[in-house]
């Protein structure tokens, strides 16, 4: 059995040897969502070499009973993904002194994070407040069909090279968000969809006391869909609903009724978070969409 520290050292040395002369390969601690510090493998192209910087979460790669063939496959996958991601990012101008705004403006999307849990991360980002949440921004790039998108956060450093205002950035992110197809699935349709292997049927609007899961078409930071007020009005059809955190990538909607209360919804939100890794958690309480006011309020 390969111990974790042995795995870390061996994979660093193997990839360093494979990318010798192209990249510096180191192990470092990286700040993730919600203040989580994770050990990552950092691959940084040397001056004059092609490619863009990449980080790999080492815990996600490690298996205690990893065979020699599995380890070699892991190394191959990391190198393949590094080259693929570098190719995609270079096509938009990353890896140069500046990334032109026109190259990436149609790839900018908003991201919702808890201010309280991400205050240190937010210090380097462009963001604006929304209740007790922050609206920051990512550049989201498609890699391959069926694969999670590649993204990079929009930092103050990158933003300042574009010569635009935060309001212009926000409006462009919202424009892109509103063009994206939302996904609204009734929770009671999921078990049969899982058993049959078929795609669950999507809902058109929210009904009283019914529960749904909402995300974007990429299932990536899909909680941002609640920023699309036009869409929320469309699916409410006069029915207010609670918004319960699931993960950063999807949110649960519960059609309001006299049987529900903010207190019970907050309890459900806290209970749900126990099943979610801290890095993936959205918030520790519920929100409420008031159909009459066409606005979201906190349930605290």
Characterization of this structure:
- It contains ten helices and 13 strands.
- The protein has helices at residues 4-18, 58-61, 68-91, 101-104, 115-122, 156-159, 166-179, 190-196, 229-236, 262-273; strands at 23-31, 37-45, 54-57, 108-114, 128-130, 133-141, 150-153, 182-186, 211-216, 241-247, 250-255, 287-290, 295-298.
- The strands form three sheets. The chain has a six-stranded antiparallel sheet, sandwiched between helices.
- A hairpin with a 2-residue loop joins strand 5 (128-130) and strand 6 (133-141).
- The chain is globular.
Percentage of residues assigned to helices = 25-40%
Number of helices: 10
Largest sheet: 6 strands, antiparallel
Strand order of the largest sheet: 8-9-11-10-12-13
Instruction: Tally the structural domains.
Output: 3
Task: State the assembly state of the protein chains.
Answer: single chain
Which structural category do the helix and sheet elements fall into?
alpha+beta
Provide the gyration radius in Å. 21 Å
List the secondary-structure elements in sequence, H or E: HEEEHHHEHEEEHHEHEHEEHEE
How far the N terminus sits from the C terminus, by CA atoms, comes to 48 Å
Number of strands: 13
Provide the low-confidence segments as ranges: none
Q: Which whole number gives the mean pLDDT?
A: 93
Overall morphology: globular
């Amino acid at each position: 059995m390969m111990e974790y520290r042995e795995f870390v050292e061996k994979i660093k040395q193997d990839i360093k040897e494979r990318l010798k002369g192209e990249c510096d390969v180191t192990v470092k601690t990286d700040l993730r969502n919600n203040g989580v510090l994770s050990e990552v493998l950092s691959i940084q192209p040397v001056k004059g070499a092609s490619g863009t910087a990449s980080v790999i979460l080492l815990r996600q790669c490690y298996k205690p009973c990893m065979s020699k063939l599995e380890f070699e496959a892991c190394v191959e996958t990391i190198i393949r993904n590094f080259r693929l991601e570098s190719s995609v990012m270079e096509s938009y101008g990353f890896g140069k002194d500046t990334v032109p705004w026109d190259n990436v403006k149609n790839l900018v999307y908003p991201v919702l994070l808890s201010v309280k849990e991400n205050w240190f991360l937010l210090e380097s980002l462009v963001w604006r407040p929304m209740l007790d949440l922050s609206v920051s921004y990512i550049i989201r790039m498609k890699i391959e069909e069926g694969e999670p998108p590649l993204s990079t956060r929009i930092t103050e450093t990158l933003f300042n090279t574009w010569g635009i205002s935060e309001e212009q950035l926000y409006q462009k992110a919202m424009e892109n968000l509103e063009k994206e197809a939302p996904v609204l699935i009734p929770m009671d349709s999921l078990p049969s969809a899982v058993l049959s292997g078929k795609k669950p049927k999507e809902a058109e609007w929210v009904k009283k006391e019914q529960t749904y899961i909402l995300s974007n078409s990429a299932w990536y930071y899909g909680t941002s869909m609640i920023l699309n007020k036009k869409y929320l009005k469309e699916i409410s059809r006069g029915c207010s609903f609670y918004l319960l955190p699931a993960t950063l990538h999807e949110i649960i909607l519960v059609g309001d009724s006299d049987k529900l209360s903010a207190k019970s919804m907050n309890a459900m939100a806290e209970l749900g978070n126990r099943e979610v890794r801290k890095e993936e958690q959205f918030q520790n309480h519920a929100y409420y969409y008031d159909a009459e006011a066409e606005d979201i309020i906190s349930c605290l």
